[in-house]
Design brief:
Strand content: under 5%
Order of helices and strands: HHHHHHHHHHHHH
Largest sheet: none
Distance between the termini: 44 Å
CATH class: Mainly Alpha
CATH topology: MetI-like fold
CATH superfamily: MetI-like
Helix content: over 70%
Number of helices: 13
Number of domains: 1
Oligomer: single chain
Length: 260
């Protein structure tokens, strides 16, 4: 029985990793078009993506939008999580459900709503409406992560700070915030990755001047398939691996903060 479960686990992991490994393998192809197996290998596809051109510009826009969306989510998420899950404000369940609508609403509906809003404000074609839209859509993931961090935080430490004469500002800066910092870091990384890889909302709000990398990749798929498209996807895989590694170190950060 144990061997069967282990075999199933290995099969599932291999099947899950195979598409990513295949894309990475093809991203080093030296052929003019995508074919498997490649007849030659080269770093030229990554040169096309990272060199001057539409792909590098789109990657920079994706990173910029991701940073703006993440900053906005964190600025709103920390006080929201403390209010909802620590101080238990009135109608907390209803407010929490409302803030989670970005996750529950279909992305095409959210994208269309923000498109109308951008037109009404005369800001269609700017990057910040896309950043706001992605912040709203991905905000629930940060909120859920912070909710878990707030719920497991030991309130005795804050009570001890109050007993020792710390005011509310000092208690928050030196006790409350460090307690939830691992959750803030994990949620921030999660929102950043989701924001830079989000396609549907970005597609609806995109123009030729402000298209993010997922939109540019999609446009390239409608023509001849080339290795630089796999390289563009490979860049996202690399970013995801870096983020996964960073999230795996969150426990180490927590131990560092609360070591004796």
């Amino acid at each position: 029985m144990g061997k069967t479960v282990k075999g199933i686990g290995v099969f599932v992991l291999a099947a899950s990793a195979l598409p990513t490994l295949l894309v990475l393998f093809l991203s080093f192809s030296g052929d003019a078009g995508l074919r498997f197996p490649p007849t030659s290998f080269s770093l030229d596809p990554y040169g096309v993506v990272l060199g001057p051109g539409i792909y590098r510009d789109a990657l920079v826009r994706s990173l910029l939008v991701g940073l703006m969306a993440t900053a906005l989510s964190v600025a709103c998420g920390v006080p929201a999580a403390l209010a909802l899950y620590k101080h238990r404000v009135r109608l907390a369940p209803l407010i929490s459900a409302y803030l989670s609508l970005g996750f529950a609403t279909p992305l095409v509906v959210s994208g269309f709503a923000f498109l109308l809003l951008a037109y009404q404000l005369g800001q269609f074609g700017e990057l910040w409406p896309t950043a706001v839209a992605l912040a709203v859509v991905n905000f629930p993931f940060l909120l859920f992560t912070l909710a878990s961090a707030v719920n497991i935080a030991d309130p005795v430490l804050e009570e001890a700070a109050d007993t020792l004469g710390a005011d509310r500002v000092k208690t928050f800066l030196f006790v409350s915030f460090p307690l939830i910092l691992p959750g803030v870091i994990a949620g921030t990384l999660l929102v950043f990755v989701l924001s830079i890889t989000e396609f549907m909302v970005s597609l609806i709000l995109a123009t030729t001047a402000n298209a993010t990398l997922p939109v540019v990749i999609f446009g390239g798929l409608r023509g001849a398939l080339a290795p630089h498209l796999a390289a563009a996807a490979g860049v996202y895989v690399l970013i995801a691996l870096v983020v996964i590694f960073a999230m795996s170190r969150v426990r180490s950060i927590e131990r560092f903060l609360f070591q004796n």
